[in-house]
Amino acid sequence: MPSHDVLRELFITGLVNAHAVEKQALSIMTPQVARIEHYPEVADRLRAHIEETNGQIARLEEILASFETSSSTIKDLGLSMSGSMAAITHSMAGDEIVKNSFANYAFEHFEIAAYKSLLVMADDGGFSTATAALKQSLGEEEAMAAWIDESLPMVTRRYATLYAEGGSLKAKV
């Protein structure tokens, strides 16, 4: 087992990385929700998850502060920019809503894995004060992934129906 100092260093690095990933999530979801036209339930769920994500960021900042450190502006900015580029790329596709659903589903599972890993490090390193906050964030990510999974048939069918009817497939411009 690595030393306590090594586990502390790895845990802090993981927290900083998770913070940057949550910032990236915001940069992906915010433009999506602004462009959704024919899928009000998706827009509503994204708005709710944006609020959850802001809470996750605040919890990560609290945990980092307890270690007398903070997030990485460079990592936050870099991942936010890459998230914005992904959102822009999908916005040019006629099947934007379907591609966004795929990407969001994958991204939620990336976040789930990150929180599970942080919980292992918190347990192994004895950082139990962080456990409740990390479990709360994990639960929110799992719930969002489950919602995307459950809603994908509806999104796909509505997209196909709009396509067949010749309706507007593009989101709002």
UniProtKB/TrEMBL annotation:
The keyword Acetylation does not apply. Keywords: Coiled coil. SUPFAM superfamilies: Ferritin-like. Residues 43-70 form a coiled coil. Pfam families: DUF892. Gene3D superfamilies: 1.20.1260.10. InterPro entries: DUF892_YciF-like, Ferritin-like, Ferritin-like_SF, YciF. PANTHER family: PROTEIN YCIF. This is Ferritin-like domain-containing protein. It comes from Sphingomonas olei.
